[in-house]
Write a structure and sequence with these properties.
The complex is a heteropentamer of chains A (213), B (199), C (717), D (406) and E (255).
Chain A (H helix, E strand, L loop, with lengths): L11 H32 L4 H7 L6 E3 L3 E5 L5 E5 L1 H7 L4 E3 L6 E2 L4 E7 L2 E6 L4 E7 L6 E6 L9 E2 L1 H21 L16 H4 L5 H8 L1
Antiparallel strand pairs in A: 1-2, 1-10, 2-3, 3-9, 4-6, 5-8, 6-7, 8-9
Chain C lengths: L6 H17 L2 H14 L12 E7 L8 E7 L2 E7 L12 H5 L14 E3 L5 E3 L2 H18 L5 E5 L5 H11 L4 E4 L7 H7 L6 E4 L6 E5 L12 H7 L7 E6 L4 H5 L2 E4 L5 H14 L5 H7 L9 H6 L3 H8 L3 H11 L4 E5 L10 H13 L9 E4 L11 E3 L10 E5 L9 H7 L6 E5 L12 E2 L22 E3 L14 H8 L8 H15 L3 E4 L4 E4 L6 H9 L3 E3 L17 H6 L17 E6 L15 H4 L10 E4 L1 H7 L6 E6 L2 E9 L7 E5 L33 E7 L3
Parallel strand pairs in C: 6-7, 6-15, 7-14, 9-10, 9-12, 10-11, 15-16, 16-17, 22-26, 23-25
Antiparallel strand pairs in C: 1-2, 2-3, 4-5, 4-17, 8-13, 18-21, 19-20, 19-21, 22-27, 23-26, 24-25, 24-27
Chain E lengths: L9 E6 L8 H9 L18 E7 L9 E7 L8 H5 L5 E3 L6 E3 L9 H5 L6 E2 L26 E2 L5 H13 L13 H5 L5 E5 L6 H7 L3 E2 L11 E4 L3 H7 L13
Parallel strand pairs in E: 1-10
Antiparallel strand pairs in E: 1-8, 2-3, 4-5, 6-7, 9-10
The chains are: A alpha+beta (213), B mainly alpha (199), C alpha/beta (717), D mainly alpha (406), E alpha+beta (255).
Chain lengths: 213, 199, 717, 406, 255
């Protein structure tokens, strides 16, 4: 197999044959290693694990815009940011919520939040009328009376689907973060970081918000 | 805190390193080989001394067909030891247990190769003029017979792998693995097919 | 500071361990050992180790007695080679000889005496008990019967051991029975000579014509390699070989002329040839005029053969008249050898066929002529000896105790033939054989003896040897403790006489040879012969013989004595003309066939064989064993059989199941089945006696089982 | 505890199904132990038949498993999005075929422990060395491609590291698709080369282009023609058994069309190859082609069946846009394709050995022993089990998911 | 630096007309090379016969019927050796010094590709564990290692004897063996002298002269494998049956 071993001959055929296979083996090995390395790196993206772990409550619907729908008494729904969404914004500097009685439409802009000169636009997960807004700091919410029950929609999902979707979202985030060479391998993996913009201040957060929400 | 963490990690790393190296260099070889005593004590020095006056090839000669006779049969011992010479335990054992009943002594061979290896001693000693000591060491000058170290897994004598567990031997006796044969053959420009040395 | 092991620390430990291990030789050595282990497969035998020792001996497996070079390691022969320049075998060893050392370890070898109990089951007993039992039976046999009630069947008569048997039997009024061997028919010729006859040999090598009636001339008959010499010599000096045989045997294939004779018509052909010799005046007129006692006159030979006209003979034998004439003329053109063959499985020709065949030799003046039948000089013998008879001459039911010597004879015999000779109620058979199955099925008592490579004995003098010789089968393996020499058994039971040991006997003959001062001794290690006179003492000769040497006698001139062309036996003489009454080959009835058993020269019966012989019979179909029946496509077609079919061959005594093999060279109406080897002959773990063709024949009035009427039926499964 | 996907068969239906196949698998495992522990005398192979049904089976499943690399190649490299529906099933099928083939190969060789020699001291001139290298590497690639599928199981995707790993693998799948295509190309070819290079076997020997005999290319072409057909068959079978529409019609159509055209090309080249062989290659070795087909068991009918009945006919059917719309045709035609490829592998493996080259040797027919069939059955059941489990626990069919959601 | 030794080409000439099918060569070969015996009931073609004597008849009736015996062993092909190129693990070896084609059992993994590739059916597989009756392992030839189950074996011109000859020569101080010192077991055992073994490259050797003679031919010569076993016969039907001629010119087939 290698020079010096029996049956290794310095012949063109041998060199091409073994060289070819070693190259292919090396490509496979290298790709695998890179993938593994990248996978270990993303674990250090703060809060990823908990972001997914937390989203396993039954009865809660997720929207692809990183909002949660929690059924409340009287057929109303409570809309809030999901865990990943919360972390992405950390503690917003400024927010603009719809007014009570205002109608919101699924897929249309509903809430706007600012953090460090970057703005995130949150779309409504459901069409309906806002009956209550509230919260402070990062814990804002909307209470909405939906137009139709049961609440359905292509962009809504239950607990069963949410994990794979969230993974791809984290993937997406990781892709953006890794593309920017931010030296992310900085802290122990798995520790929840509630405020990502503080942890990674150099990232292009405007881009992240527009991609993620 | 972070610094302490690093330090304990380094400590553990070193512990792992040292333990594994100790195991690899000392414990494994000790466990891998079993030590088997020869059936009888034998002194090459006494036999080749001026008193006994024997030459190496009195016992380790070539047969009529050119093969190597190896360790002599009891018939050779009988020539001198028909009656016990002296009173040592081994001497009495030789006469009582082997010579009188005519039993062969089950000597253990340090350099035993597997069945499929063909090693013509005569080609190496007579044609290539390689001294016996190159592979067998100063066995001919020993007072006693060392126990045979047998690999529990493969059944091979340790002499085949070489006395140095690292597998790197720089002075005789050299190890007797196939790669050793090949190295020497390549050095001497002998290139052969498999069946030249395998049967 | 609180100390707790974190995951990191553990990783550190593992990492350090891995690097540490990699820096030590252990894992690399481990990989190497595993690599070795995958190549070193333990489930194969270990080779013998040690220096190779070379010795010389003779083979005791068949009458040829070939010279052997034995290479041994640690007392075990690891290879056998021929001895170039050996006066008799000239470097030849046959397949069986090469492998014969495996007999000693044959799985069917018996390791203790066995006896058949009252229930019919065979059980082991001690040697002491076996000898006591033999003694009891001996006493009983002697008290119950007269002459011949005790007998020894000797498959290798003529050795010094046979002389010891005869000496012992003389004290018991017993008889010494010759086992069947390829040289047995020579005795027929001796009886045709008037007065005491010397030992005779067939000088095949110098013959101009060899007329073989089914003898395996090219397959091992006579001395080792004789057949090969006949083939290999250039056409001008080579004898012209005429093979008279039904089967396309290897000899028939290799002969100069193969006469495919109809089954059982050899007598007719022989007398037909005589007819031409007489009618055309081609016989040796001088000798016939001087010595023939029964040529002319009423009931004379001339009158007999006149009836066997070529046309008649052609009708019966299926050989055309022109060929018969051609053969007769060739035969008369010089010294010729006639061999009434003994087939290793098919047995001898009928007595009248043997007589008719040998009458050709006498007619041609070949007795006493080089290239014909030559006489061997004898070494004087001493003491009183019992009669030697042939089995055919033993009255039925006369034997009360039959002791079977374990020597290999080379020819198989039907069970029924021996059984007939035993006393129906009290007949006992004691076998002195290393194997359960040799010589005779169901011996009442078997005392294990040695195999040929373990015991010293005299090698044979082959049928084609012109002179006497002495070579020893010097043991090349140690005889196991459970085996015993046959003479030791006799000396244990003998009460009134002293039985000498085999070594004493051999030494005695060696000394007598030395005293005779004739001949020369071959030294196998040098490959050359020296005159006997150069051996100063008898001890020198003995040492040479023990070193594998061969003494050969000098030849002497021999003048043919008066003889009877039709033999001395009136019964046989009367049967000769009856041969004409056989039906023509064309008269064969539909669906009626004959079974002709045959044997392989080196694997004659159902006895054990070295496992490696399976290569010839089982791993290839180079030779067909008793599982196959060869038949011509025409007959098979008539009977509704095709290649590969299973068939049952049925005779009056039973049936065997065979696979049909078609061969267009086989004669119509005949099915050939080999006598052995049986499937278990090669020492497989699952013994179980298969049906053998020799269990089938019933020998009614003569001792010939070559042609057996049979039916071939489909096997209904 | 790993849970099945939402809309899969209930356990009381699934258990007997899988139990049945497990029983067959156990039988196969027993036969395997017999062969490995006692020797290959349990088979009916002999010195004239060094290759038996196992090699035939290996060759066939590897040809049929070509759907995996070819689909991946079309989807990831040539961006044929129609194949998105079947790629999961294709990967699982490929993995089953290749892993099964490797295991059967390990039983088939007398001393599997020594297989490392092929890597350590390879004979670069041997087609079998090439096959071994490619097969091992490609099996690794298939396993890597299989991993993301496994990780998509909801129970497993609870573990974020695995999830992340899966996402990362997705990104490099194009690399593996590319590598897989190269490896598959070569080992499908080398499997054909296996026979074409045997200069001592006039029945198998073929003309060479550079170092490769024509069978090298024919095997590649036939494999990529049969792979899509096999995918159609298996997906249809799975749909039938699960009573669900698993794959969209467009995917079937695409697969059918591509299979048809490739097969047509193959049949054309195979015919040219056969004509050259009959008129040129075989006679040059001293054998007239008629000798090869004189035994009834391997008469010219087998040539006709291989090229026309199971080659040209399904090819013509599959390239016809109208016929492809017929669901029955879309079962029968791919089935014919697969049988045709199996016949080709059978002929190359077994007929080439049945015919003696020595004129005085006999024609030998070989029938597999029960143990061989047992191992065969074991491998088949292994495939069914792995596919069933994959279907039950893994989202093999993205199309199905979509349907369930809406 | 490679020592310059005269290149040998060991080969054999088998005179079919002398062979009477006794099988001594098969037995001698098996004993010499410790070839094991397969169990009873083994199916046809499962035995181990490094040299195998085929018996071939001309399928004619008496008196025209004729039988030829053809001993076939490994033909030690000299060109495009079919088995060498196919072995994936280099277990088939050709000795560059003498042209002997060998099979290394310890390196063989038993894929049997070489058996399929061999046109002479001269390679044999160990379907069983090799077995000798108890005790007979002491009778094995110490010069040849027995093969294990699951590997291919074949004739290697009695390489154990080649070793022995070399050893004997070395004990006399010679590095090369004399022609008469090395004979195969089959050649030695053949009672009819049908097998002549020797160096084909030595033009004066008996074997080279016979091989060059007009009666010699090679099995399946048309395959272009150039066997180093030659056969002799005067019988036309045997020669016609055993040899083949290309039906078209071979030159065209290689482009």
């Amino acid at each position: 197999m290698l020079p010096g071993m029996y049956e290794f001959h310095f012949e063109l055929g041998h060199l091409i044959f073994l060289g070819g296979f070693m190259t292919i083996g090396a490509v496979i090995g290298a790709t695998l290693l890179i993938t593994l390395f990248r996978s270990t790196r993303i674990v250090t993206v703060p809060g990823g694990a908990t972001a997914i772990e937390k989203e396993s409550t039954a009865g809660v619907l997720h929207h692809v815009g990183h909002t949660l729908l929690r059924p409340l008494a009287g057929g109303t729904l409570k809309i809030s940011l999901d865990d990943l969404g919360t972390r992405l914004l950390g503690r917003p500097d400024r927010m603009r919520l719809p007014k009570i009685g205002q109608r919101i439409t699924e897929g249309a802009d509903a809430v706007k939040l600012w953090r460090k000169q970057s703005a995130a636009t949150i779309v409504a997960p459901v069409s309906g009328t806002v009956v209550e807004t509230g919260g402070h700091d990062d814990k804002w919410y909307l209470r909405v009376l939906p137009d139709a029950t049961p609440v359905e929609g292509e962009n809504l999902m239950g607990a069963a689907k949410v994990r794979s979707w969230l993974t791809s979202e984290i993937d997406k985030l990781q892709a953006i973060l890794s593309s920017e060479d931010l030296g992310l391998a900085m802290a122990d993996g798995g520790e929840p970081l509630p405020d990502l913009p503080s942890a990674v201040p150099d990232a292009d957060w405007q881009k992240i918000y527009s991609e993620m929400f | 805190m972070i610094l302490t963490q690093r330090r304990t990690t380094i400590l553990f790393f070193i512990i792992g390193l040292v333990v594994a190296m100790l195991a690899g260099w000392i414990a494994v070889p000790a466990a891998l080989y079993e030590s088997i005593e020869q059936p009888l004590g034998f002194s090459h020095v006494v036999h080749t001394s001026d008193d006994a006056g024997m030459e190496c090839d009195d016992c380790h000669h070539l047969t009529s067909e050119g093969g190597f006779a190896g360790i002599p049969k009891i018939a050779v011992c009988v020539d001198c030891h028909e009656e016990a010479i002296g009173t040592s335990v081994d001497e009495l054992k030789l006469v009582e247990e082997y010579i009188k009943p005519g039993r062969e002594i089950p000597w253990l061979v340090y350099a035993r190769q597997p069945d499929n290896a063909f090693f013509p001693h005569v080609r190496h000693t007579r044609l290539a003029k390689i001294p016996c000591e190159q592979c067998h060491g100063d066995h001919g000058q020993t007072e006693t017979l060392r126990p045979l170290k047998r690999n529990r897994f493969t059944g091979y004598s340790r002499d085949i792998w070489g006395n140095d567990f690292s597998g790197i031997t720089t002075s005789p006796p050299f190890s007797m693995k196939m790669s050793d044969c090949v190295d020497c053959h390549r050095k001497r420009g002998v290139r052969d097919s498999c069946l030249a040395c395998h049967k | 500071m609180g100390f707790s092991v974190k995951r990191r620390d553990f990783l550190g430990l593992v990492g350090g361990g891995a690097i540490g291990a990699a820096l030590s030789p252990a894992p690399w050595k481990g990989l190497d050992d595993i690599a070795i282990w995958t190549q070193n497969w333990s489930w194969k035998p270990r080779l013998p180790r040690g220096p190779v020792e070379v010795a010389f001996t003779h083979c005791g497996l068949c009458p040829a007695g070939c010279g052997l070079k034995v290479r041994s390691v640690g007392g075990n022969p690891v290879s056998i080679h021929g001895v170039p320049g050996h006066p008799s075998s000239t470097g030849f060893v046959c397949a069986l000889g090469l492998a014969g050392r495996y007999f000693s370890y044959h799985p069917s070898r018996i390791v203790e005496p066995t006896i058949v109990g009252t229930s019919g089951q065979r059980r082991g007993i001690s040697r002491k008990a076996a000898v006591r039992q033999l003694g009891d039976w001996l006493d009983k046999a002697r008290s119950g019967g007269g002459h011949g009630s005790v007998a020894i069947l000797d498959n290798h008569p003529g050795r010094v051991r046979s002389l010891a048997y005869r000496g012992w039997l003389a004290t018991l009024d017993g008889v010494h029975i010759k086992g069947l061997r390829e040289d047995t028919p020579i005795n027929r010729l001796r009886t045709m000579l008037d007065g005491p006859a010397p030992e005779l040999g067939l000088d095949i090598a110098r013959a101009r014509t060899v007329l073989s009636f089914g003898a395996p001339v090219l397959e091992g008959l006579g001395s080792g390699g004789a057949g090969a010499h006949l083939r290999g010599r250039s056409d001008t000096e080579k004898p012209y070989i005429v093979q008279i045989e039904t089967r396309p045997s290897r000899t028939a294939r290799g002969a100069d002329l193969w006469l495919r004779i109809a089954p059982g018509t050899e007598t007719v052909l022989a007398l037909g040839l005589a007819n031409i010799l007489v009618s055309e005046g081609l016989y040796d007129k001088e000798i016939i005029a001087q010595q023939a006692l029964d040529l002319d006159g009423p009931g004379g030979y001339r009158e007999l053969v006149a009836r066997f006209s070529p046309k008649q003979v052609s009708r019966i034998t299926g050989i055309d008249a022109a060929t018969i004439k051609k053969v007769a003329r060739r035969f008369a053109s010089g010294p010729a050898v006639v061999i009434p063959g003994v087939d290793p499985g098919g047995g001898p020709l009928s007595a009248e066929a043997q007589t008719a065949a040998f009458s050709l030799s006498l007619l041609n003046g070949d007795v006493g002529r080089p290239g014909g039948v030559v006489a061997r000089r004898a070494i004087p013998q001493e003491g009183q000896l019992a009669d030697t008879v042939e089995l055919a001459d033993v009255p039925d039911g006369s034997i009360r105790l039959l002791i079977v010597d374990g020597a290999a004879g080379g020819c198989a015999m039907p069970t029924s033939l021996l059984k007939r000779k035993l006393n129906p109620s009290e007949g006992r058979v004691v076998s002195l054989s290393p194997f359960e199955r040799s010589a005779l099925h169901g011996a009442d008592l078997v005392i294990p003896s040695t195999t040929p490579f373990e015991n010293i004995d005299e090698a044979g003098v082959p049928i084609d040897a012109p002179v006497d010789s002495m070579g020893l089968t010097v043991p090349s393996m140690r005889a196991p403790d459970y085996s015993v020499d046959s003479l030791s058994v006799l000396s244990m039971v003998a009460k009134s006489s002293v039985v000498p040991t085999i070594t004493e006997l051999l030494r005695g003959r060696s000394d007598r040879i030395h005293a005779g001062g004739r001949g020369s001794v071959f030294d196998p290690s040098k490959g050359e012969s020296v005159p006997l006179t150069e051996f100063q003492t008898n001890g020198d000769l003995w040492r040479a013989l023990m070193g594998g040497g061969l003494w050969t006698d000098t030849s002497a001139a021999f003048t043919c004595p008066p003889f009877r062309l039709m033999g001395a036996n009136a019964a046989i003489r009367d049967r000769l003309p009856q041969a004409l009454e056989q039906p023509s080959t064309a008269d064969r009835q539909a669906r009626e066939i004959v079974l002709m058993p045959f044997g392989w020269r080196d694997a004659p019966g159902d006895g054990p064989l070295p496992p490696v012989m399976a290569k010839l019979f089982r791993e290839t179909r180079l030779r067909l064993d008793s599982r196959f029946a060869t038949i011509c496509p025409k007959t098979a077609g008539e009977l509704g059989f095709a290649q590969g079919d299973k068939a049952s061959i049925k005779t009056s005594l039973g049936s065997i199941t065979v696979e049909v093999v078609l061969d267009p060279a086989v004669v119509d109406g005949v099915v050939h089945v080999a006598v052995g080897p049986s499937t278990e002959a090669f020492g497989d773990a699952s013994p179980g006696k298969g049906d053998q063709p020799l269990d089938l024949p019933s020998c009614k009035n003569d001792d010939c089982w070559r042609v057996i009427p049979a039916k071939m039926l489909e096997v209904v499964s | 505890m790993i849970e099945p996907l939402d809309n899969r068969a209930p356990t009381r239906v699934f258990l007997p199904w899988i139990g049945f196949w497990m029983a067959i698998f156990a039988l196969g495992a027993y036969c395997t132990v017999l062969c490995l522990s006692q020797g290959l005398f349990h088979t009916n192979m002999n010195n004239r038949f060094g290759f038996g049904i196992w090699i035939f089976l290996d060759l066939t499943v590897i040809a049929l498993g070509a759907g995996a690399f070819f689909s991946a190649f079309l989807l990831y490299i040539l961006k044929k999005q129609a194949l998105k529906d079947v790629i999961g099933a294709a990967v699982v099928l490929g993995f089953i075929c290749y892993s099964g083939a490797v295991v059967v190969l390990a039983i088939d060789v007398g001393q599997p422990l020594r297989a490392w020699f092929t890597f350590w001291h390879p004979n670069a001139h041997s087609m079998l060395a090439e096959v071994t290298f490619c097969l091992t590497l490609y099996l690794l690639v298939l396993a890597i491609e299989y991993v993301p599928l496994i990780l998509k199981n909801p129970s497993l995707s609870k573990n974020v590291s695995l999830l992340v790993f899966e996402g990362q693998l997705h990104k490099v799948v194009v690399v593996f698709a590319g590598v897989g295509a190269i490896l598959s190309f070569f080992h499908q070819g080398s499997l054909g080369g296996l026979y074409g290079v045997m200069n001592g076997r006039p029945f198998a020997f073929r003309e060479h282009f550079f170092i490769w005999p024509s069978t090298f290319f024919l095997f590649i072409l036939s494999a990529i023609a049969a792979g899509p057909s096999f995918l159609i068959l298996i997906n249809k079978l799975a749909s039938k058994i699960s009573k669900k529409q698993l794959v969209r019609k467009e995917a079937y159509d695409f697969l059918g069309r591509i299979s048809g055209w490739l097969l047509l090309a193959y049949v054309g080249l195979k015919s040219v190859d056969t004509i050259v062989w009959i008129n040129h290659t075989a006679p040059a070795s001293g054998y007239s082609a008629s000798e090869f087909f004189k035994e009834a068991s391997f008469g010219t009918w087998i040539l006709f069946a291989e090229i026309i009945l199971f080659g040209l006919l399904p090819a013509l059917v599959l390239i016809n846009n109208r016929l492809r719309k017929n669901p029955l045709v879309m079962i029968v035609a791919p089935l014919l394709v697969c049988i045709g490829i199996a016949i080709n592998r059978y002929v190359m493996t077994l007929q080439s050995q049945s015919l003696p080259t020595l004129p005085f040797e006999e024609f030998v027919l070989y029938t597999p022993s029960l143990v061989e069939i047992g191992v065969f059955g074991g491998m088949l059941s292994y495939g069914v089990i792995v596919f069933s489990l994959s279907y039950r626990y893994l989202p093999l069919f993205p199309g199905l998911q979509q349907k369930a959601k809406t | 630096m490679t020592k310059t030794t005269p290149k040998k080409r060991y080969g054999m000439v088998i005179d079919i007309d002398r062979c009477d099918g006794c099988g001594a060569c098969m037995v001698a070969c098996s004993l010499e090379n410790n070839v094991s015996v397969v169990p009873a009931g083994a199916a046809p073609h499962r035995g181990l016969t490094w040299i195998r004597v085929y018996s071939v008849t001309n399928k004619k009736e008496y008196p025209d019927s004729d039988t030829a015996y053809l001993p076939v062993s490994c033909q030690h092909c000299g060109n495009e050796t079919p088995c060498v190129g196919v072995c994936p693990q280099s277990a088939v070896d050709v000795d560059p010094k003498n042209g002997i084609v060998s099979q290394i059992p310890e390196r063989c993994m038993g894929c049997r590709y070489c058996m399929v590739a061999c046109p002479y059916h001269a390679r044999y597989f160990n379907w069983w564990d090799p077995e000798w009756p108890e005790g007979t392992e002491h009778l094995l030839n110490p010069g040849v290692t027995p093969r294990m189950r699951g590997v291919v074996e074949k004739c290697n011109f009695c390489h154990g004897r080649h070793h022995a000859a070399q050893e004997r020569a070395a004990s006399e101080g010679r590095s090369e063996i004399e022609p008469n010192e090395y004979q195969t077991a089959c050649a030695e055992a053949c009672p009819n002298g049908a097998i002549t073994f020797g160096d084909l490259a030595d033009k004066n050797s008996e074997v080279a002269k016979l091989a060059a003679g007009p009666e010699s031919f090679q099995l399946l010569k048309s395959l272009g494998t150039e066997p180093k076993i030659y056969y002799l016969t005067q019988r036309g039907w045997v020669r016609d049956m055993a040899t083949r001629t290309p039906l078209i010119s071979k030159g065209q087939s290689h482009d």
